[in-house]
Write a structure and sequence with these properties.
Elements: E1 11-13, E2 22-26, H1 38-44, E3 50-54, H2 66-79, E4 90-96, H3 99-114, E5 119-123, H4 130-142, H5 149-166, H6 170-191, H7 196-219, E6 229-232, E7 247-250, H8 262-272, H9 275-280
Parallel strand pairs: 2-3, 2-4, 4-5, 5-6, 6-7
Antiparallel strand pairs: 1-3
Helix pairs in contact: 2-3, 2-7, 4-5, 4-6, 5-6, 6-7
């Protein structure tokens, strides 16, 4: 698969000094979000796994076919040397929510490259649609400072109107949500005496997130999705929009806490590790 021309690393190490097998993790880990990240999960895993998290591309093209733009993400992550100078094997590929789509595709690529399929673990897997973006912008508006409750209520009604008008057209909804997000934050931050540059930074982050979801939606799950193991929080649907996975394990934790729960980390370690490693870490 061709490499990307993006500058900067495609993968960020989450465990300093780790020298074991590589574990690749895909998530859009925005700063300040409430949900736990793979950095927290990596800190709970025993052993020396070299956990590396995907870094979204900084310059996804605005033009071109939707499938080409979607594959831009995959080309970046698969096209750079992610496994270190010693070319250590990839033991597992992990995905969180929409990142599970990319994880399933990467697992297929890794299998072709190294001749052995990595373990594929999907945490609350989903193929994103308009409801996902609607949910996430509602969370953002719900936690927004600098707006009155009446203004917040009107913003939420506006979100509902955008969702209803867009129907199943994800990109139409995303464009309108980004515009609403930009205007709302510009007003709120101006009242708080914060410069407009910060509002633009927040808008770029939300636009980048919407693009990430759109790419996952257009790319779709890889063939290995059906053989993956899903680790699910309370109320998670188990990736129904992408089809059932091979095995589902449910935990009595919220989605917010899924990647920071010790029980989830212990199960993930057992699924990833060869038998001799799990024997070494028995209590």
């Amino acid at each position: 698969m061709p490499g990307s021309h993006d500058t900067g690393p495609a993968w960020s190490p989450l465990v300093a000094g780790a020298d074991g097998d590589v574990v690749l993790a895909v998530d859009f880990a925005a700063t300040g979000r409430r949900e736990a990240t793979f950095a927290e999960l990596a800190g709970l895993l025993p052993g020396s796994f070299d956990v590396r998290q995907a870094v979204p591309p900084p310059d996804v093209p605005d033009t071109g076919a939707e499938d080409d733009r979607a594959r831009h993400y995959l080309h970046r992550w698969a096209g750079q040397v992610a496994y270190g100078p010693a070319a250590r094997p990839v033991r597992a590929v992990l995905g969180y929510c929409a990142g599970c789509v990319f994880a399933s595709r990467l697992a297929d690529i890794v299998e072709r490259r190294q001749g052995e399929r990595p373990v594929l673990l999907l945490f609350d897997p989903e193929v994103p649609g308009v409801p996902n973006l609607d949910r996430d912008i509602r969370r953002a508006v719900g936690g927004m400072d600098g707006v009155s409750e009446e203004e917040r209520a009107e913003l939420l009604r506006g979100i509902g109107r955008i969702r209803d008008a867009a129907g199943d057209d994800f990109d139409k909804a995303a464009e309108a949500f980004v515009a609403l997000y930009r205007e709302a934050y510009a007003t709120a931050l101006a009242r708080m005496g914060v410069g407009g540059d910060f509002a633009e930074q927040l808008t770029r982050l939300f636009r980048s997130y919407a693009g990430y979801l759109s790419a996952a939606r257009h790319l779709g799950p890889g063939p290995g999705w059906a053989s993956a193991t899903s680790l699910l929080s309370v109320g998670a649907t188990g990736g129904r929009t992408g089809g059932r996975t091979g095995r589902e394990i449910r935990f009595p934790v919220s989605q917010e806490d899924l990647l920071r729960d010790p029980g989830v980390a212990r199960t993930a370690f057992e699924l990833i590790s060869p038998p001799e490693m799990t024997d070494d870490h028995q209590p």
